[in-house]
Design goal:
Length: 106
């Protein structure tokens, strides 16, 4: 995966076409999965508050040997949080230990 295929977005940013989804993985499993995925060249991680593993994703990213700027992180607003999207995003950022998300699905 030396040159992953990317999609160019309208704003000029690019998004990898292939990413690691961590649905149904525990926080512990996520740490190992992300570590291995980054080792083989993945640069996109897809999680969600509803998966209850954003803290594990955050730990894995914090310990990663890949710079944050090289990664594309997606998370999602859960149905129960549609009346409080800002607070939900801030909760996700805190759990992920990130300053920003590349894609926030609503």
């Amino acid at each position: 995966m030396a040159n992953p295929t990317v999609i160019k977005l309208q704003d000029g940013n690019v998004m990898p076409q292939l990413g690691l989804g961590v649905w149904q993985a525990s926080n512990e499993e996520v740490i190992t999965a992300i570590q291995k995925a980054l080792e083989v060249g993945y640069r996109s991680i897809d999680t969600a508050a509803a998966y209850k593993n954003e803290e594990g994703v955050g730990k894995a990213l914090k310990n990663a040997s890949v710079n944050r700027e090289e990664l594309f992180i997606t998370t999602k607003l859960w149905n129960d949080d549609h009346k409080r999207p800002r607070e939900a995003l801030l909760d996700s950022l805190k759990k992920l230990q990130l300053d920003y998300i590349d894609l926030y699905l609503i």
